[in-house]
Amino acid sequence: MVARETLTLRELRQADVAQARRILDTSEYVHYRFAPDELPHLVELYPGVGAFSGAPGPLGRVMGGSLQAFAQVNEMSPPCAWIGGFGVTWSQGERYRDYLGLLLPALGEKLWARQVRNLYYSGADYDSDWLRAPLEELGFALTSMLRSYDKSDFSVPTEGNQSIVVRPFRPSDAEPLVALETLCFDDLWRHDARAFREAARLYPYFVVAEDDQGIVGYQFNIVDMKIGYLVRIATHPRAWGAGVGARLMAEAVHYFERQGAWKIVLNTEEKNTRAHRLYEWFGFYLTRPRGFALGLPLTPPLAPARA
Ligand SMILES: CC(C)(COP(=O)(O)OP(=O)(O)OC[C@H]1O[C@@H](n2cnc3c(N)ncnc32)[C@H](O)[C@@H]1OP(=O)(O)O)[C@@H](O)C(=O)NCCC(=O)NCCS
């Protein structure tokens, strides 16, 4: 057991980033879904909490204490947020369940104050994810199974619908894309306007498709270590089956080829048969492992007891 009275739980600050980064670099008890260099930016934007050695109260505040464990959000579009990072120092690693149990309620409280009502976690391998069981013990439940698809060539079966215009994303597209998002995705996968602007900062390829009625789709990608990540594709339901998805896919495949990627990878929900048809038509094949998402409904923080 972790002795709660010897720890201080508080929101992560910029001054804590170096310690959090050290945990990521030196411990095996880590899970993170962001580039470590992104940590200062994430701490700036989204809630994160740390467990610091040293008792609460004036002395602990003066002494500071050293970071033993932390949990950090990496995506937040209220009412949903995602745990993007969790880490425990190597020496405390075996107590990771205890730290998770301490940090998550504190994180939930911060998120509640920012209008988040559901917290999610995504793991890359349902069969061997070390955090799945402890999260389920804390009330998380399976929300979605994911499929992984790869493509190892740059052939395309079609160039798709040529009557639409595909152009780079502009910041003023963010609001219209939010409207599209509500038609295309369940709320846990949706982006708000800030998340779209974040995506434009993070992903070097971000295009929008337009027809004569306005925005009809979007798509963004990144290449890392010569692997092409097809991060997101969506088209407006009014145009489903009209080759807009195929156009965005074809352009993405050409982009990855130009960038010198040696394969293209993507994830999608197990139940999204419409997307499976598009991907399989474009020569993507199923791979292992199976990713998954867990969800936890947050509850309002308890009111402080009156003296
Ligand atoms: C998945 C999605 C992007 C597909 O976009 P779309 O614009 O409907 O795609 P297209 O019309 O270009 O292509 C799909 C069509 O390809 C066609 N197609 C598939 N295989 C084909 C083949 N072998 N030969 C000819 N046509 C084929 C089909 O007509 C298919 O339409 P269907 O699903 O009605 O059968 C879109 O439905 C969507 O945005 N869904 C919600 C968001 C989402 O799930 N995104 C993906 C997960 S991140």
Walkthrough of the structure:
The chain is of the alpha+beta class and 307 residues long. It folds into two domains: 4-145 and 293-297, Aminopeptidase, CATH 3.40.630.30; 154-282, Aminopeptidase (3-Layer(aba) Sandwich), CATH 3.40.630.30. It is built from nine helices and 14 strands. The protein has helices at 17-26, 39-45, 58-63, 96-113, 132-137, 174-184, 193-202, 244-258, 273-281; strands spanning 7-11, 30-32, 48-53, 67-77, 80-88, 118-123, 141-151, 165-168, 205-211, 214-224, 227-235, 263-269, 285-287, 292-297. Strands 1, 2, 3, 4, 5, 6, 7, 8, 9, 10, 11, 12, 13 and 14 form a 14-stranded mixed beta sheet that branches. The longest helix has 18 residues, at 96-113. It is elongated. The mean pLDDT is 94. The structure holds coenzyme A. Coenzyme A (COA) is lined by residues 160, 184-185, 232-235, 239-246, 268, 272, 274-275, 277-278, 281.
Concise description?
This protein has about 300 residues and is an alpha+beta fold. Helices cover about 30% and strands about 30% of the residues. Helix 6 (about 175-185) crosses helix 7 (about 195-200).
β-strand number? 14
- Looking at the overall shape, the CATH architecture of the largest domain is 3-Layer(aba) Sandwich
CATH class of the largest domain: Alpha Beta
Main beta-sheet annotation: 14 strands, mixed
User: Could you say how many structural domains there are in total?
Assistant: 2
N-to-C series of helices and strands: EHEHEHEEHEHEEHHEEEHEHEE
Radius of gyration: 21 Å
Distance between the termini: 29 Å
Structural class: alpha+beta
Average pLDDT number: 94
Small-molecule binders here are:
coenzyme A
Determine the strand fraction and express it as a percent band.
Answer: 25-35%
**Discrete helix count:** 9
Shape: elongated
CATH superfamily of the largest domain: Gcn5-related N-acetyltransferase (GNAT)
Helix fraction, binned, reads 25-40%
CATH topology of the largest domain: Aminopeptidase
Low-confidence stretches: none
